[in-house]
Every structure is written in C-alpha cells, then in structure tokens.
Amino acid sequence: MSSPCSILECGTTDDRHFEMDDYAGTLARWCPGCGDHAILTAVHRLLATEQLKPENTVFVSGIGCSSRFPHYVETYGFHGIHGRALPIATGVKLSRPELDVFVTMGDGDCCSIGAGHWIHAIRYNIDMTVLLLDNNIYGLTKKQTSPTTPQGLITNTQTKGSFLPPLDPLQTTLGVTNASFVAQTADWMPSHLAATLQAAKEHKGFSFVRILQRCPVFTPDVFTQAIKDPNVTDILTHDDGIQDASTERIYKSHLFHDPSNIDEARRLAGGDRTRVGLFFRNESFPRYEELRQVPKRTPEEKIAFINAELDRHAV
Ligand code: SF4
User: Fold this and answer.
1) Are 132 and 144 spatial neighbours (Cβ–Cβ below 8 Å)?
2) pLDDT of residue 4
3) How far does the centroid of ligand 1 lie from the alpha carbon of residue 142, in Å?
4) H/E stretch holding 279
5) Using CA atoms, how far apart are residues 56 and 75, in angstroms rounded to an integer?
6) CA–CA separation, 135 vs 129, rounded Å?
7) Torsion angle of C-alpha atoms 28, 26, 105, 147, degrees rounded to 10
8) Quick one: which atom of ligand 1 is closest to the CA of 31?
9) What are the start-end ranges of the E strands in 31-155?
10) What is the pLDDT of residues 278-301, one digit of tens each?
11) N or C, fewer C-beta in 10 Å, the chain?
C-alpha cells in the first residue's frame, strides 16, 4: 500500500493502491484444511482487484465458523447474531447506500434460523454480495444436522443418520420473487471461485453465491467425489455467464445455460450432479433501496425523527 498509516485511517487520500495483504485482518482461526481459508483468500483478491476502499466496505456475518469472516478482513465489519446477518446488512445498506456491503453466512445460519430473513432479503433485492459458505453441517456447535446435511449422515443431533432430504439453497433462492443473481462455486476451484465472486460483485442487486465448502473435521467425505473426479461436476457456460477458461479446460462436462432463463435455472439447480456457474441473472428487477428512498437526515434530525415516532405511538 502507498501509505504507512492504518488503512482505516487513510480515507482522505485518493492515491492509495491496495494489495491483497492490505485487506488481511487478524490471523484466521479456522481448522487446517478448512475451505474457509481458500474463500478468504479469494475475497482478499477480489477486494484488491476492485481496489475497494476499506473505509467504504463492510462485512456482515451471523454466527458460525464462516461468520468469523469479518475479523479476517481489514475493512469495517459486524459479527452479528445467529441468523440475523441479512437484516443487519439491510440496515447498513439502506442507511449508507454508498458502501460496498458483503454478507457471509453458513448453511445453519442462513437456511435454518435465518431462513425468514433470507427469503425476504432475496425479494428486497438490495445491492449487496451474499456468500453462503455451505459445508452441510453446523461446525461451530460440533456436528449438528443443518438444513443442507445429506440424508443419512450421522451427526451429533441425529445419531442414526439425518432424517430428511436436504434443502437445496439454489432452488430455494430461485423460487423467491425478485431473485436477481444466483450462482454456485466451490472452495476447491480457485479460479472459478474468483470469477464468480467478481461477477457477483459487479451485479447490481442481491448477488447470492452458494460456495460448497470443505469441513475436514465434521463432513470430510461429502465433497470427496466432486474434488477427486472432475467428471461429476458440470460447468455452466454461456457468454453471459461466469467466464473461466482454465476451469473449463479441467472440467470437461459443460452445460450451455442461458442465465436469463429462470425455468431452466430451477431445473438445473436440482438433481444429484454438482453444478457450478451462473444459474440466473436479471439486473432489471427492482431494488428496494431505489424504490424506498431514505431521506438524508443529520444526526440531530434522526434523533428528532425517532422521538417523534415514539411519541406518535405513545399510549
Ligand atoms: Fe472449518 Fe469445519 Fe473447522 Fe469449522 S469445524 S473451522 S467449518 S473445518
């Protein structure tokens, strides 16, 4: 970086150049081999590629292994409460629309306790980049069944094997009115992961990226086949999709898919195959922050407004 001062204190200069290391926060405390490490590296790379100003960037998370993310990125951050990352991020973006807002959630956090917020955040289509780090288990609370846990997997809460077929986060997201960007990638596909994050960041609206994430401690086998055998993974290709020639050279099974076709996107999101790429994108869908213009108020005006609202509801 061009200046020796802390990056969060340097907001007045315009000639700064940020390297990946400039976005590194505290030392990540995930287990060795955890897929979160690769995702963190890809995010640092994205921030440097985009030259996002740390003081104008916010990472919001809930609770879980992946929700430690804001500690590891040298921007502003909010390590929230379980399942509530999206309402917090919504408030941040509505109050400060000029900020770049990222959300990181795990499958338990997003798809279970946070599921109501998830569905409405998709419909609101507020401009933010939302990463679902899906390891198919509650890792932080030591191997409890999550909504995406494969049926039959033995966990500490369902010791004879998880009872139900897993929820599919892609199909769920694609089923919600106003979903505008839905993609899938994997932590072990660094080039594809980087290209997907780039596309998600560029999208104007709620960019939902499910990242298949290894948890070598509690779900060491769920992605083994996909990691070892490129033939079980389909790459979605299209001129308007994720552009990643190097992954397409390694993974030979390509599916030509027009990401404007939501019916086909829903069909492709189901099934037993691992599919990565851009399932759906439509930037013309309405965004809540455009429809609901929040008036600009000074701090004093905000306090006066809140007091007036409280008085209005006094009994
Ligand atoms: Fe990663 Fe699993 Fe360890 Fe959590 S328990 S840090 S998800 S490897």
Assistant:
1) no
2) 38
3) 9
4) strand 274-281
5) 8
6) 19
7) 30
8) 3
9) 57-61, 76-79, 100-106, 128-134
10) 999 999 999 999 898 767 789 999
11) C
Report the nearest atom of ligand 1 relative to the CA of 135. 7
- Quote the distance between the C-alpha of residue 101 and its chain's center: 10
Which two tokens mark 115? 């599921």
Predicted confidence (pLDDT) per residue in 143-188, tens digit:
999 999 999 999 999 999 999 999 999 999 999 999 999 999 999 9
Q: How far is the CA of 17 from the centre of ligand 1 (A)?
A: 33
Length of the chain: 315
In degrees and rounded to multiples of 5, residue 255 shows phi and psi of -120, 120
Ordered strands of the 128-134 beta sheet: 76-79, 57-61, 100-106, 128-134, 206-212, 181-186, 274-281, 233-237, 254-256
Atom 3 of ligand 1, residue of closest alpha carbon: 31
